[in-house]
Amino acid sequence: MKAAVQTYRDRMRRVLDHIDRHLDDDLDLDTLSVVAAFSKFHFHRQFTATFGLSVHRYVQLARMKRASHQLAYGDAQSVTEIAMDAGYDAPDAFARAFRQRFGQSPSSFRTSPDWEPWLVAFGPLETARSKLMQTTYTTNDVTIRDVPTTKIAIMEHRGSPETLRATIHRFIAWRKAAGLHPSTSPTFNVWRSERRPASPADYSVDLCVGTDQPIAANGEGIKAGEIPGGRCAVLRIVGYTDNLEPAALYLYRDWLPASGEEARDFPIYCQRLSFFPEVPEHETVAELFLPLK
Question: Which of 128, 199, 129, 189 is nearest to 164 (CA)?
């Protein structure tokens, strides 16, 4: 019975991966039912029952999420090009759909995104994906590594997690202006609070980029710091790396007590090795580091 359930989940996960990898292609029921190895007659009902979204709605949201990231975090494509990539025949139709969903025009979102309606709009997509996300790990997934000290530039986020994306938007703009591209300057997040503290105002995370260059005074409050070197337990996460809480909980709650190791006095942190939408979401990679004595 367990094997049959796992096979079913694997087939559905294969569909989600195919959608992410082929957002520019025709993702109709005929194509996706073949990927899932289900009959077309039953597939759309099975998909909706599993994820709480129709196939058409899921694809729409996945394309719109990519479009919103391209607008907010990139400048290589025009609004018209992004609209076409999202499956719209004309930028006007894309603008109407975008405004209806987010309360902003694409151009306004690119300049000054309002993330609160964005989070609401993509809640159903994240809920659907979470149904098939890996939430359990084993000791075989963890390695112990000696890591060097890394000098970093830091933008602090202090306050509600709901405003984090606005800080990320500012951080990306600053690092672009500073010439610190992710391909040459590593990206880190250092968590100084729980993901969901009792008071949202207590949420605290540092957005960091590895750099040896001096940090000049700037309006964004960027400051210099370092991630200390030493032994770390490292857990690599592949795919859908927005929420690393299950991996962090495994390291703290399960792996650490059983390992005989002792945590060092530095917060858990991650290095983000690939980014959506530069790669499909199921191909994003992050490594979680738990510093050890």
Answer: 189
Q: Where are the alpha helices (DSSP H) in the chain?
A: 2-21, 29-36, 40-51, 55-73, 79-85, 91-102, 106-111, 115-121, 123-130, 164-177, 245-249, 256-259
Which pLDDT score, from 0 to 100, does residue 19 have? Answer: 94
- What is the DSSP secondary structure assignment for residue 253, as one 8-state letter? I
**Using one digit for the tens of pLDDT, what is the confidence trace for 183-199?**
899 999 999 988 888 88
Residue among 140, 167, 85 nearest 255 (CA): 140
Task: Estimate to the nearest angstrom the gap between the alpha carbon of 207 and the chain centroid.
Answer: 14
pLDDT per position as a tens digit, 14-24: 999 999 999 99
User: What distance in Å separates the CA atoms of residue 197 and residue 289, rounded to the nearest whole number?
Assistant: 21
How many angstroms separate the CA atoms of 96 and 31, rounded? 28
Tokens of 127: 């809920």
